[in-house]
Amino acid sequence: MRLTVFLLTLLSWVLAQGPSGQLTVALANDPKSLFMPRAADRTASNVAAQIYNTLVAVDDQGRIVPELATRWSISADGREYTFTLRTGVKFHNGEDFDARSVVATWETGRDKSNDYAGNFSLVKEVRVLNPTTVTLVLEKPNALFLNLLANAWALVPPGYIKQVGLDGFSARPVGTGPFRFVSRSADRIVLEANPNYWEPGLPRVQRVVFRVIPDATTRVAAVRTGEIDIANRLTPDLVAQLRGNNRVRIVSYPNDRVYYVGFKNIGAGKGTPLENRLVRQALNYAVNRPGIVQAIFNGQARLVSGFVLPGNLGYDESLKPYPYDPEQAKKLLAAAGFEKGFSLSMGCPADAYVHINEVCLSIQRDLARVGIDLTLEFKTSSAYWSQERYGAVGAMYVDSWSSTVGEALPRLQGALTPGAYYNTWEDAELGRLIEQIATTTDRTARAALYRQLQRRMYEDPPFIYLYQPVIFEAVNVRVQGYKPRSAEEYFLKGVSVR
Amino acid sequence: MLRYLVSRGLQALLLMAGALVLVFFLVRLTGDPLALMLPKEADAEQRAAFRAAMGLDQPLWLQFAQYLRGVLEGDLGHSLRNQRPNLELILERLPATLELALAAFAFILLVALPLGLLAGLNPGGLLDRLALGLAFAAQVVPSFWLAMLLILWFAVELGWFPSFGRDSPLSLVLPAVALGFSGLGQMLRLVRTAALEARRADYLRTARAKGLSPARITWHHLLPNLAIPIVSVASLQLTYLLGGSIYIETIFAWPGLGSLLNTAIQDADFPLVQAITLFIAFFVILLQLLADLAYAWLDPRIQHS
Predict the structure, then answer these.
(1) Which residues of chain B have a CB within 8 Å of the CB of A387?
(2) Which residue of A has its CA nearest to B158?
(3) Which of the residues A312, A379, B7, B119 has an alpha carbon 20 to 30 A from that of A487?
């Protein structure tokens, strides 16, 4: 009893304290926009997300939990989602949150000028049943719709957005979130605690200042001097400088991203040995991936067995990454009729990812050992991704896909749906499985489909699966409660500073 | 003087026209901005809509004509990424870049003038050796490497200066030194050589013979004669400092034109790359014109040659 009273007193004391202190966060690049449908990179969405709320959220365990919707129901055909909205919530400018904001969010979100208009246009109608109940009607069932709502549908105030327009809103955004926008200049974005925030006891810091520091070495220096509290996108060698520093804590976690070598059976890949399954298996054996991880990433990356990663729904742990076995590769090549090897070219997005140039060179050297003469085509990222289906580069290319929803579906759809912009491997069976996963709302059934797909992608590989990177961040020891997620997502409302 | 002014003015205009054409076409060789401006998931329809909205579906000559008309009307276009007028972005960042360039230049003058003079007037002495050593170091040390060393020593280890940003007058010190250091060698050698030659010049011998004090000789006779080579090198150096600040601004997260250009290049925001490059080119051409005029004003013989 005494303990309960003590704990309750402690809790009420903590809640009564209110937000305090300033948290300074380094950004690797200048965010494009703070209007979520235009926040086209992780840096931008990490800043913007602090200003808004969504109808539902994803918790640390990957579960969908209520946010501005207190409960919801899904129609039997999976096309209608009806939400009951939280009452008493106000936007930072004083406007009330209600069903009209959901309509405004949908209408402004699908504006053609937005980068992510597609996240909103998949809803064909928003029906307002009363001020606190809305139904979103989808074109077709979508297994990840709630995740999409949690990630992308940041709710906006209809009155304000009508008054200032989308560009005006982008410059001075208003939401219901834990922090409100204060100012933005060439080198910083300032947010402050929303005094009327609806979640009790949150946020815990009074001010968040985002500073744009493009150079990773400078970000590390600024954490060491205490000018910055959180710095991300650090390389393993930079992190090594921080070991033993008692003012800085290193946070590392595997990123939900797969690096791979793509094959083509269209365009430049048509009529090449890559169309032979044995050749593609041989290439998976021929690349010394453990060596790449060890020598280039200092051991700080994980080998992968496919496009579905540990922690993703339906991950099949019985599939082990292809081992490095050049002899097996030679045998498979001989069996496929290519004992003398062959020549091909491979595109590489120069400097677009950490150490990617070295990775490309390693692959070239490894394949030479089994008789494959690879010509590397290095291109800058804008040239690399500017053409549909990697048309600018050869029959093979190096790339990566991430996912922010705890499932592999977005990268599967991006890379393997026949006809998709970046799809280079056309396989009707894979396409059918992906479509089934995308429209199956039952998680158990979806997990089974993922397992089926993984086995197929393992035995008849459309890629050489390379590795999953580990992300490093440096955090000042005065920061408490900071837990980034695998897609480098920041959640700052629960963070406090000593 | 008027003829000289007109001829230099015409040359400057011609250079500007050349810069305009070069910038427009070179920028278009760097790849398609769509790749970075749109998310990977964007479909063909979204891509086409974006292309049309940005005028990228027009023939190149028409894009150039529209661009030219804009420049003549003082409109440098809109940034794809920032969705704001380029000129507004440039003018917002210009003060920081000028501040850094001028501070770096002040650093060069503060070190090179006294040290170069003393070295040139006392050749072979300790200061002369120091000056020559420093001039050599300034020429071989890459500025980005020096920048990192300065951050490690003076910000991280000693804590004397901030490691990045433009928050206080102290923030200016490390980037100004890092940027100015590479220009130091040239200025130091120039001042030293000029002083060395001046030692033997008739006008100084006359001044000494008149019994003038060394301070008066330096201020009233030596320095005005050094002014001409210094002005010509100074204008070149300011040009270099404005252009060379891309790396330094990026390393120190200095919110100037250099870091804006760096971001614009990475994002293939080519209207902005084009606008900044053109702006810097025009600025530099004007600076050179002013330097030439100052040169002619300091030494009237120049305009007749």
Answers:
(1) 32
(2) A225
(3) A379
CB-side neighbour CA atoms (13 Å) of A133: 6
pTM of the model: 0.84
Q: How far is A395 from chain B (nearest CA, A)?
A: 20
Strand partners, A489: A485
Strand order in the sheet with A133-138: A69-74, A80-85, A133-138, A123-130
The letter for the amino acid at A49 is A
What's the first-to-final CA gap in chain A, in angstroms?
A: 30
What separation, in Å, do the N-terminal and C-terminal C-alpha atoms of chain B show?
A: 12
Smallest Cα distance from A337 to chain B, Å: 37
ipTM above 0.85, yes or no: no
Nearest CA in chain A to B90: A186
Closest by alpha carbon to A265, among A466, A416, A374?
A: A416
| Amino acid identity, position B128 | D
Residue B29, pLDDT above cutoff 80: no
Q: Under the phi-then-psi rule, with left for phi > 0, alpha for psi from -120 to 50, and beta for the rest, what region is A190?
A: beta
Residue carrying structure tokens 């490691």: B163
User: Given CA atoms A230, A234, A239, A241 in this order, what sign does their dihedral have?
Assistant: negative
By the 8 A CB rule, do A208 and A179 touch? yes
**How many angstroms separate the CA of residue B28 from the nearest CA in chain A?**
11
Question: Which one of A214, A222, A225 has the shortest CB-CB distance to B259?
Answer: A214
Residues of B in contact with A186 (CB under 8 A): 92-93, 96, 255, 260
Q: Are B188 and B131 a contacting pair, CB within 8 Å?
A: yes
Taking only the tens place, the pLDDT of each residue in B191-245 is: 998 888 887 888 878 888 888 887 788 788 888 877 777 777 887 888 888 877 8
What is the sign, positive or negative, of the torsion defined by CA atoms of A414, A420, A425, A428?
Answer: positive
Distance CA A460, CA A453 (A): 10
Q: How far apart are CA A51 and CA A47, in angstroms?
A: 8
- What lies within 8 Å, CB to CB, of B87 at 6+ separation is B74, B75, B76, B275
CB B188 within 8 A of CB B135: yes
3-state secondary structure of A202: coil
For residue B16, the distance in angstroms to the closest alpha carbon of chain A comes to 28
A27 - beta bridge partners? A212
Could you tell me where the DSSP H helices lie in A210-256? 216-225, 236-242
Distance separating alpha carbons of residues B263 and B79, to the nearest angstrom: 12
Give the pairing type, strands A396-402 and A496-497.
unpaired
Candidates A218, A247, A248, A423: best to mutate against B (most CBs of B within 10 A) is: A218
Query: What whole-number distance in Å separates Cα of residue B111 and Cα of residue A410?
Result: 58
Angle at A49 between CA A46 and CA A53, to 5 degrees: 165
Which one of A219, A225, A241, A411 makes the best mutation probe of the B interface by having the most chain B beta carbons within 10 Å?
Answer: A225
Among all residues of chain A, which has the CA nearest to that of B82? A32
What would the DSSP string read from start to end of B103-168?
HHHHHHHHHHHHHHHHHHHSTTSHHHHHHHHHHHHHHHS-HHHHHHHHIIIIIIIS--S-SSSSSS
pLDDT of A240 higher than 90: no
Is pLDDT at A219 greater than 60 in this prediction? yes
Best probe of the A interface among B83, B145, B153, B252, by most A CBs < 10 A, is: B83
- Condensed to tens digits (0 to 9), the pLDDT of residues A245-291 reads 899 999 999 999 999 999 999 988 999 999 999 999 999 999 999 99
